[in-house]
Amino acid sequence: MTQPRDIRVIDQEKLLVSVRKAAQILDVSERVVYDLCYSDELQSVKIGPKKWIRRITCESLNQYVENAVRESRIDTSTEHRHL
Questions:
Q1: Which of 9, 60, 62, 73 has the CB geometry, 3.0–4.6 Å to 43, for a possible disulfide?
Q2: Which of 32, 2, 5 lies closest to 19 in space, CA to CA?
Q3: What is the torsion angle, in degrees rounded to the nearest 10, for the CA atoms of residue 18, residue 42, residue 47 and residue 12?
Q4: Residue 45, phi then psi, degrees to nearest 5
């Protein structure tokens, strides 16, 4: 059996993206991205003198998707065993 290759939803030189861009990449709302940040499922940093600007790490986007795919595979294989 071959090993699954790494899933890269974003492969660019940038280290950080805006909440809006992260939402576009994941095809979810900005609110969902904020919720993922608050629950520590996505890593983010606050930038600026008053720390009002939030940016999401590109690596955490990739890791989030990899984890989601892995969990989906586990859920699917568990469902098939119960049928």
A1: 60
A2: 32
A3: -50
A4: -130, 150
Instruction: Report pTM.
Output: 0.73
Cα angle: 66, vertex 71, 75; to 5 degrees: 150
Contacts of 43 (CB under 8 A, 6+ apart): 37, 56, 57, 59, 60
- On whether the CB atoms of residues 26 and 9 are closer than 8 A, the answer is yes
**Cβ-proximal residues to 25 (8 Å cutoff; 6+ apart), any chain:** 9, 10, 17, 61
Q: What is the pLDDT of residues 36-74, one digit of tens each?
A: 999 999 999 999 998 889 999 999 999 999 999 988 887
* Distance from C-alpha of 19 to C-alpha of 70, rounded to nearest angstrom: 24
Distance CA 2, CA 6 (A): 12
9, two tokens? 């939803």
